[in-house]
Amino acid sequence: MRSxxxxxxxxxxxxxxxxxxxxxxxxxxxxxxTTKDQCPSVDVALTGTNVDEIRxxxxxxxxxxxxxxxxxxxxxxxxLRKAALAHSSDMVSRSFFSHTAPGGSTFVDRIVRSGxxxxxxxxxxxxxLAWGTGELGTARGxxxxxxxxxxxxxxxxxxxxxxxxxxxxxxxxKDATVGATFTTEFGVKL
Length: 190
Prior knowledge:
Order of helices and strands: EEHHEHHEHHEE
Mean pLDDT: 85
Number of helices: 6
Helix content: 25-40%
Oligomer: single chain
Shape: globular
Distance between the termini: 17 Å
Structural class: alpha+beta
Radius of gyration: 15 Å
Strand content: 25-35%
Strand order of the largest sheet: 1-2-4-6-5-3
């Protein structure tokens, strides 16, 4: 497992990790190039009623970035989304920001628990985390921060990934009354 890393960017905090396993038995940001017509709501702040719009914007920006690099688009997966949303919610409610929950649960543990894959299957998984306020808490702000970070960029542009779960929760780990917290779970079953 590659160790995770984190970077503080103004009022946005991002953290990325990726892990790949085989079966145990054997550039410029799309956010700048993508118009509001292509990916609506990229500059809209999260409210309690527009989570689906913002999630769609993250997916749109991710796939626009992948298209610029001749990569297949990712499709949403409900089980990965469940794991992502649970982690964003947990980080806001328990005031922490990490790929590993205070009890020791990792993103791989969360994804396996969601039913997306089993531990002994072949898979490749990754996770990007971020939180932000103001324009840095929008889909564009978070996406651009991820694209400036080598680990997050690697997850977004990893050719093998086929599916994505996006979990967005109002609030940030330090203050549940402002901004938004984002978790994206990347996956492919091999």
